[in-house]
């Protein structure tokens, strides 16, 4: 798995994490590293000194997901847009013919 930080679109201090994997599992240490990059980027783009919440808003969204709120509800609450490409999830650990399902506009489609 390759994790790479590149320039984001929000401004000169914005960072985006690119993840490249060849069927490698995302490990907790990868997720924590990604979260660290996002928290730092949120602080840089939305500084508390200028009246923004910085990393606190991202943490609140994560806590909402942890607390069982649906992703759609959390996205609306924080004025975020759902992914245009939907969400891809492996539902067959055997890697068979229908091993991936993509969720688009509340419809499941085999890829």
Topology:
Blueprint: E1 2-7, E2 15-20, H1 28-45, H2 55-66, H3 71-77, E3 87-90, E4 100-104, E5 107-110
Antiparallel strand pairs: 1-2, 3-4, 4-5
Helix pairs in contact: 1-2
What would you note in describing this structure?
By secondary structure, the protein is α+β, with helices and mostly antiparallel strands. It has helices spanning 28-45, 55-66, 71-77; strands at 2-7, 15-20, 87-90, 100-104, 107-110. The chain has a three-stranded antiparallel sheet with strand order 3-4-5, with no helix packed on it. A two-stranded antiparallel sheet has the order 1-2. Strand 4 and strand 5 form a beta hairpin. Helix 1 packs across helix 2. The radius of gyration is 16 Å and the shape is globular. 2% of the residues are buried.
How is this structure best summarized?
This protein has helices spanning 28-45, 55-66, 71-77; strands spanning 2-7, 15-20, 87-90, 100-104, 107-110. By secondary structure, it is an alpha+beta fold.
Kindly report the spatial arrangement of strands forming the biggest sheet: 3-4-5
Low-confidence stretches: 91-111
Main sheet characteristics: 3 strands, antiparallel
Quickly give the structural class.
alpha+beta
The count of domains is: 2
State the distance separating the first and last CA atoms: 22 Å
Number of strands: 5
Mean pLDDT, rounded to whole units?
A: 81
N-to-C SSE series? EEHHHEEE
| Rg of Cα set | 16 Å
Which percent range fits the helix content? 25-40%
Strand content: 15-25%
Overall 3D shape: globular
